[in-house]
Design a protein that fits this description.
292 residues; alpha+beta; Protein Transport Mog1p, Chain A; 2 domains; 7-stranded antiparallel β-sheet; signal
Length: 292
C-alpha cells in the first residue's frame, strides 16, 4: 500500500509538475517530511510561467500531504524519540527507565524481531549525536538485518548481534569463562566472514550491570585487524557487552579504527555499558511518535 501511494505521488508529479518529485528518502525521516512541506510553500522556478508555478506548488503540496498521511500509518524509528518518550515506552512494559545520556549522546530504543522467525526483543543503548540509526527491514516474508548506529564514513559503528543458545555449548555465560566470551565476541564481529578478521585479541572481560530479570551483562574490550576488500589492513578496536535473555545470546559491539580511539573511547564504552535487552515484547503495544 505504502509503495503504491509513493508511486502514485511520483507519477502525478512527473506528469503535472514537469519532473519535480518528492525523494523516496522522505518515508523514514521526520525532517524530510518537514522539508517536503516547506518546499510546497517556496516560490517555484522564476523562469516558469505563473500558471506552471501555481500548478507545481499545488501538486507538491498535495503529494507532501499524501506522503505525510502514509508515514503516519507506519511506526517511525524509535531512535527519533526523546529521553522522556523512551522512558514512557519502557514504563509501558513495566521496565526500568534509562538515565540521561552523557553530553553529546542520546538514547536508542528499537525493536528486533517483528516476524515469527525471530524472537521479539526490545533493545536500548546510548549513542553519539550525529550517528545514523538502522533498523531491521521487514517484508512479506521475513525480517532481515539488525539494529545498528554509526558514522560509517569514519568507520564508527555499533550493532546488535543475536545468536542462538546452542552457541553456548551447554556452558554458562559468565565473565570468568573467558574462552567462551572470546568465542562469542569473535563470532559477533565476523558475521560477514571470518577471513576478513586477523589477529583478534580479547583484551579485557569484566562483569557489568545486572539486568531486569537478574541476568548478568558482561563488558569486553577487544582489538583486531580488518582486511578490506581493497587489500588494506585496518587496525580496529572495540568495546562490547553480552548477555543472555529468552531464547538467545545478545550483544552489542561498538567499534572504530585505532586512529580514532582516543576521541571515541568514552563514547564506545558508554554504548557498551548502557546496552540493555528485554524479551517477552508485544510489538503492537509499542508505538512511535516523532512529535513527542
Amino acid at each position: 500500500m505504502r509503495n503504491c501511494v509513493a508511486m502514485c505521488v511520483a507519477a502525478t508529479l512527473a506528469a503535472c509538475a514537469q519532473g519535480f518529485v518528492v525523494p523516496c528518502a522522505v518515508r523514514h525521516s521526520a525532517a524530510a517530511q518537514r522539508s517536503a512541506l516547506q518546499m510546497s510553500a517556496q516560490p517555484g522556478d522564476v523562469t516558469a510561467a505563473p500558471q506552471q508555478v501555481s500548478r507545481r506548488q499545488a501538486m507538491v503540496a498535495a503529494s507532501a500531504a499524501i506522503a505525510a498521511a502514509v508515514l503516519m500509518q507506519e511506526p517511525q524509528p524509535a531512535s527519533a524519540l526523546g529521553l522522556k518518550a523512551v522512558n514512557a515506552r519502557l514504563a509501558d512494559y513495566g521496565l526500568p527507565g534509562v538515565g540521561k545520556p552523557p553530553d553529546g549522546m542520546k538514547a536508542l530504543l528499537e525493536i528486533y524481531g517483528r516476524d515469527q522467525n525471530r524472537e521479539t526483543l526490545l533493545v536500548t543503548w546510548n549513542y553519539p549525536n550525529g550517528w545514523i540509526t538502522q533498523r531491521p527491514s521487514l517484508d512479506t516474508n521475513s525480517e532481515d538485518g539488525t539494529v545498528a548506529t554509526g558514522d560509517y564514513q569514519k568507520g564508527d559503528s555499533a550493532f546488535l548481534v543475536v545468536q542462538p543458545l546452542d552457541v553456548l555449548g551447554g556452558e554458562k555465560l559468565s565473565a570468568t569463562n573467558k574462552a567462551l566470551v572470546e568465542k562469542l565476541v569473535l563470532q559477533s564481529i565476523t558475521q560477514k566472514g571470518a577471513n576478513q578478521i586477523q589477529n583478534f585479541k580479547l583484551k579485557k572481560v569484566t562483569e557489568g550491570a545486572t539486568g531486569a530479570k537478574g541476568q548478568q551483562y558482561i563488558n569486553v574490550e577487544f582489538k583486531y585487524d580488518l582486511l578490506t576488500g581493497a587489500g588494506f589492513i585496518v587496525e580496529r578496536v572495540g568495546y562490547g557487552s553480552l548477555t543472555q535473555v529468552g531464547k538467545g545470546v545478545q550483544s552489542v559491539m561498538a567499534v572504530t579504527t585505532a586512529a580514532r580511539l582516543k576521541k571515541l573511547q568514552p563514547k564506545l564504552q558508554e554504548i557498551a555499558t548502557s546496552f540493555r535487552v528485554y524479551d517477552g515484547i508485544l510489538v503492537d503495544k509499542l508505538s512511535y511518535d516523532n512529535n513527542e
